[in-house]
Amino acid sequence: LRAGRPPKEFLRFAAGVRARLRVEVRWTERYPTASLRARERRYRRAVRSMGRFLGREWRDPDAMRIASELGQRLATLFTFVRRPGVSWNSNEAEREVRVAVIHRKVSGGRRTARGAWVLERLLTVWRTCAKRQLRFWETVSDKLGGLPQPGLGPPSAGPAS
């Protein structure tokens, strides 16, 4: 970390990245019903513009690092331009993982990689069921090949006796 005001070159770099993203966000908002062909042309143009910008000779170490990271993600950076219905921000995706983050913080983390994998899958199914207005336990039981049994439901949240 560097203390104080960021170097001028980094500020120019950040402004350039923001400006290119802002132009494409405004385009998608102005033309929400654009044809797939128009979207593809606009996507290629945005990728070329950002690629040229990122490829400049940056001397600031933070600008160099971020330019490299964005360059590696350039093909997906403007997916929102190419695909109708894809948001330009990650707000919804971040809300989706919030449940898992809260669970991890409250429980002190997951003990094993396999446990983390299982929890991630269960939370994904849980969120999908909520969005589709399906009952989680019945869906899981059905998909695992069992039939819901009377009294089968979520585990008790109360203390074990």
Automatic annotation (TrEMBL):
Endpoints of the signal sequence: none
Domain spans labelled Transposase IS66 central: 24-116
Protein name: Transposase
